[in-house]
Amino acid sequence: MSIKDKVIVITGASSGIGAATVVNLAKQHAKLVIGARRVDKLDELKEKYSEAEIITQKVDVTNFDEVNDLVTTAIDHFGKIDVLFNNAGIMPINPLIKGARDEWQNILNVNVMGVLNGIAAALPIMQSQKFGHIIATDSVAGHVVVPNLAVYNGSKFAVRAIMEGLRQEHHNDGIRTSIVSPGAVATELYKSSTDEATQQAELENEKEIGLSAENVATAVAYAIDTPDNMDINEIIIRPIKQP
Ligand code: NDP
């Protein structure tokens, strides 16, 4: 089945990697249900890429009911869900000594519970369809720990473990699982850091060496477009200058 016949649900679609993926897939005439909190950004994409069928919906991935509604929208409008791209994420950077417990909780809620909420909403439907593909944006930070990023690292290590568990539990149900793990990408992600000096350093690093969101979207589209008997379990993409 080509991309144009696929129903694809995307979280974190209002900017960065998610928005670039919407554009890539819209140009291939996919049927898209796209979610984020900033619906105005989603509507701009829908208007600009009218060659694809795009449904926009407000979703906060920390809220299971909203994630479930997003998946239900795909079923109500298109009768199936081929792909769930669990992409929404945040990356506040802080040393552990700051004890930023609210921030830690938020990272875990968005990056880990957000992915689990997507799985909880889509998996029973995919199991009964006997097909489906769940993709998560993980990170090189899910492989390598660096100072000041420990909680984000923990969230991305967790996503990798959860996605591997999903693969092991459901590969016999026709369900494919993929993780896309980029290194530095030039997006708005640096804005989720509460520390201004860190924001600036992160922005400069991304501008200096980062991949584009479009680079990563190409990898997501590749994973989606492979034949159903193939499971691209993980794609790691570093900018060439990243150690
Ligand atoms: P952006 O900040 O550009 O995009 C993040 C997206 O997540 C936005 O669309 C935002 O939408 C959405 N989001 C954040 N919080 C929530 C929430 N509670 N509910 C719903 N949506 C939410 O950054 P990226 O494109 O870089 O990030 C996308 C993914 O890529 C993340 O999982 C990130 O961890 C991962 N990643 C990024 C890297 C990078 O260097 N940029 C490297 C490796 C991985 P809105 O605010 O409208 O809700």
UniProtKB/TrEMBL annotation:
Transmembrane segments: none
InterPro entries: NAD(P)-bd_dom_sf, Sc_DH/Rdtase_CS, SDR_fam
Pfam families found in the cross-reference section: adh_short
Superkingdom of source: Bacteria
UniProt keyword terms in alphabetical order: Oxidoreductase
A molecular function GO annotation: oxidoreductase activity, acting on the CH-OH group of donors, NAD or NADP as acceptor
Keyword Oxidoreductase belongs to the record: yes
Protein family: Belongs to the short-chain dehydrogenases/reductases (SDR) family.
The protein's name in its UniProt record: NADP-dependent 3-hydroxy acid dehydrogenase YdfG
Species per Swiss-Prot/TrEMBL record: Weissella bombi
